[in-house]
Amino acid sequence: MSTLNKQIVLAARPAGFPKESDFRLVESRMPVPAADQFLVRSLYLSVDPYMRPRMAAGGRSYARSVEIGEVIVGGVVGEVMESNHAQFAPDDIVEGMFGWQHYAVSDGAGVRKVDPTLAPISTALGVLGMPGLSAYFGLLDIGKPQPGETVVVSGAAGAVGSIAGQIAKIQGCRVIGIAGTDEKVRWLIEDLGFDAAFNYKTTPNYYRKLVALCPNGIEVYFDNVGGEITDAIIRLINVRARLVICGQISQYNLEKPEMGPRWLWALIVRQARAEGFLVFQFADRFAEGLRQMAQWIREGKLKHRETIVDGIENAPRAFIGMLQGENIGKQLVKIADL
Question: pTM to 2 decimals?
Answer without folding.
Answer: 0.94
